[in-house]
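Review form for a predicted model. The reviewer records the input and the model, then writes brief findings.
Reviewer: anonymous (R2)
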Amino acid sequence: MSHSTHTFLQIHHRDNVLVALDDLARGTAIHFNDITFHLNTDVPSKHKFTIKALKPGEEVFMYGVLVGVTTENIEQGSALTVNNVHHAAGEFKLGERKTDWHKPDVSQFSQRTFLGYHRDDGSVGTANYWIVVPLVFCENRNVEVLKEALVGKLGFKQAKTYETEVEELISLYKAGRSVE
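Model under review:
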């Protein structure tokens, strides 16, 4: 089977699994680093498959961290599933946090300009864009919840289309009236 160089991704160099970027069929040739192997199972887009064979009890690393332990033999090029991997996590602790900040010397940039926002008080600013890319489907809802919370609290919430009209219809319905 043919192989495009953009059909899978290793997210972190420590990972022992790859992420399918497209639906990959059983038998697809995978050319990764200095090895070539064929998939033993179909691997749906955004699902993970092994770079090498794993025995029961071996650790699975994704995103550079421990995410699971194998529960059975998994052949090289096989999809990870809830049946062959059990959740596991490495120890986590916060290190020493450095929170002091010292204003840097920016005098060398005093004559430089940029396209930013000029505020009424004479200060300037830039637009800040946050890009969040969930790497697994189960995080999509969490990202949406965070977005809703932040947009409202940061003052960017806009009235939803037809929200007022729907509230009026509900109110009329409860009162036994119609819009006419």
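Findings: Residues 8-87 form a domain with the Archaeosine Trna-guanine Transglycosylase; Chain: A, domain 4 fold (CATH 2.30.130.110).
Further findings: DSSP finds two helices and ten strands in the chain.
Recommendation: see findings above.
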